[in-house]
Every structure is written in structure tokens, then in C-alpha cells.
Amino acid sequence: MNCSDDTYCLGIESTADDFGVGILSFKGRALANINSAYINPEGGIHPREASRHHAGIAGEVLSKAFHKAEIKPKEIAVVAFSQGPGLGPCLRTGATAARALSSYLNVPLVGVNHCVAHIEIGKLVSKAKDPVTLYVSGGNTIISAFDGGKYRVFGETLDIAVGNCLDVFARAAGLRQKEGMPFGAMVENVASRGHSFVSLPYSVKGMNLSFSGLLTAAVQLLKSGKHTVEDLCFSLQEVGFSMLAEVTERALAHTEKPEVLLTGGVAANNRLQSMVKSVADEHKVRFCVVPKEYALDNGAMIAWTGILAYQHNMVIPTEKSFVRLKWRLDDVHVPWVES
Ligand code: AMP
Ligand code: MG
């Protein structure tokens, strides 16, 4: 297997609102990472509309990626795509593009688990070797660490993801999404002007988390008009992020891993970063956080995980490349990490 820096993998991400294409060398050099987000003016993600956005924009994103990478399509050695978990119509659009490319270029096709990809790109860019990972995004909230051939789930949300909790609250508060700024980032801005802590339900059940009660309570208090939006955003962050920090700390204490890695779209939040860093500092382990470009959903993480999987012969024939809407992180065999 040729693994020089002239060997490239193209990765396609399309699990939800983002359609992304990344091109990476087998040594982990990112040549391109282009993304186009579907924005619903009414908020939320309409799966069919998002998949139409992806189908409409795919050609343009692909050609931008080749242009940025300054390579020709025929120089691609492997095509990888996010096979799951995610929204069916969105996943199918990315998979169709990936199948067409792999068959046209006559190169192998690799199906990648989206959650594994968030961890692997985090390890690549932060040089973490064996972290406890807190993966927080619009669709997922998972605390995991590697053990016995898989990324094991130590804790996860029992209902909605923390990013979804922030997004729905922002919409209820009438914050208007502008210039592609994520709702979570708008909550963060407004929270920085909050001062008084408002009591909200703190819901950690064993090692798992629940955000739906927290969201309902915050929205009810908002409607009551007794508190400012600033104080509610501030309190929502304090409570939700403390819950995440608590479970991350317990996973760290149990596993005695040498690093904590924060990844996923919500990792961009400064308050969450400072809370998780305090946990890491207290346990004298390294705190690693993924930069925004690679924290939000992106094609580069799919390309990189595609390379790792390809090097372990995890290629799939086109006729078996169906998407896996509920593909769990701890169902994935990860032979490229040493046990
Ligand atoms: P992803 O699903 O990984 O693409 O991440 C999208 C999620 O990240 C959405 O729920 C966003 O609102 C959230 N997000 C992005 N930036 C921030 C931020 N600065 N603070 C909190 N959440 C954020
Ligand atoms: Mg996204």
C-alpha cells in the first residue's frame, strides 16, 4: 500500500445540516476542507430540505475542494463518506455522491462513522494520543474513551443533545441567526452579559445526561418574563456545561487517561472550554480542544478517518454501502488504535 504524502483521500460529510468535502494526504496534511451549511430561516433542520441543499451544492463544493487542494480528481486514491449516524435523506445524498466518485475514479470506497471521525480529527490536530473525549454537537453528546478495540461510551445524553438544547432555547428567545453564526455562539454572546444565576434543573443520571427538562424549564422561565434573556442564557450554560464537566471528570478519574479532548460544534464555546480545562488541570492531564474549523461537522474528519480505516482494509463494496442512521460509536471496530 502506497502511503506517501502524494496519496490522497477525499471525504464527504453529510449527516445533517452541513455538506462538507475534505481532501487529506495519507500523512494527515489537509489540502482542502470546504463546507456549505443548510440554513432553515425558521430554525431546525428539515431533513428533506437539507438533503436538497446538499444535492444542489455538492458539485460546487467538490470543485472548490479540488481547486483549493490544487490536485486533479484522478489523483484521489480513496473516497470516504459519513455512513452514519445521521438524518436518512442527508446521509443518502452524501453516500450517492461518494459512490459516484469512487466508481467514476475507480478507487475504493470507505464508510466512516461520524462520531469516530470527530474523535480522530481531534487526535490528529491536537496530537492527543489516548484521551477521554467530550463530543458535544447539535445531534450528539457523548463522553468516551478507547478500550479493548473500540471507543467505549462512558456517558451520553438520554434525550436531546446539548447543542440542540442551546439552539432551541435561542430560537424561543427570538435570537435571529445572522451571517451563518450558529445559535450556540449567539447564546454564548448573550450569556456574557448575564450576571444573576437562575436556578435550573441539573440532570445527571448515573453517567448519563438529560437536557430536555433543562430546556423546558429555561423556556418556561423565559415566557414568565421574570428574568432577562441574558441571565437565562448565562444560567443555561452554567448548568448544562457543569453537567458535562461532572461526567467527563468521572470518566477521567475512572480511566486515568492522560488527556481530555473537547470536540464537536459546541467545543467552540469559551465557557465550556474553561470548565473542561479546569477538570483537566485538577487531574493534571493535558487539555486538548479542536479548533472551530474541525470542531463543527466537516469533510476533513471523514477523509482522515477514511485513511485510517482504508489502511486496515475496511473498504466496502458499493452494493453494501447503505447508510446507517443509528450507527453507535461503540459499535465500531477501531483496529488502528493500539489496545
Ligand atoms: P455540529 O453538529 O458539530 O456541526 O455543531 C453544531 C452545534 O454547535 C450547534 O448546536 C451550534 O449551535 C453549536 N455551536 C456552535 N458554536 C457554538 C458556541 N460558540 N457555543 C455553543 N454552541 C455552539
Ligand atoms: Mg452541523
Written account of the structure:
With 339 residues, this protein is α/β, with parallel strands linked by helices. The protein folds into two domains: 8-118 and 296-331, 2-Layer Sandwich (Nucleotidyltransferase, domain 5), CATH 3.30.420; 128-294, 2-Layer Sandwich (Nucleotidyltransferase, domain 5). Helix content is 42%, strand content 20%. The chain has helices at residues 47-69, 88-105, 114-126, 162-172, 183-191, 212-224, 229-255, 270-282, 292-295, 299-310; strands at 8-13, 18-25, 30-37, 76-84, 109-113, 131-136, 141-147, 150-156, 204-205, 208-209, 259-263, 286-289. The strands form three sheets. It has a five-stranded mixed beta sheet with strand order 3-2-1-4-5, sandwiched between helices. A hairpin with a 4-residue loop joins strand 1 (8-13) and strand 2 (18-25). Helix 3 (114-126) packs across helix 10 (299-310) and helix 7 (229-255) packs parallel to helix 8 (270-282). The chain is globular. The two termini are 23 Å apart. The mean pLDDT is 96. Magnesium ion binds at residues 16-18, 138, 265, 296-297.
Key structural traits:
globular; 339 residues; Nucleotidyltransferase, domain 5; single chain; binds adenosine monophosphate; binds magnesium ion; 10 helices; alpha/beta; five-stranded mixed β-sheet; 2 domains
- The CATH topology of the largest domain comes to Nucleotidyltransferase, domain 5
| Helix content estimate | 40-55%
Quaternary form: single chain
Shape: globular
The largest sheet is: 5 strands, mixed
CATH class of the largest domain: Alpha Beta
Unreliable runs: none
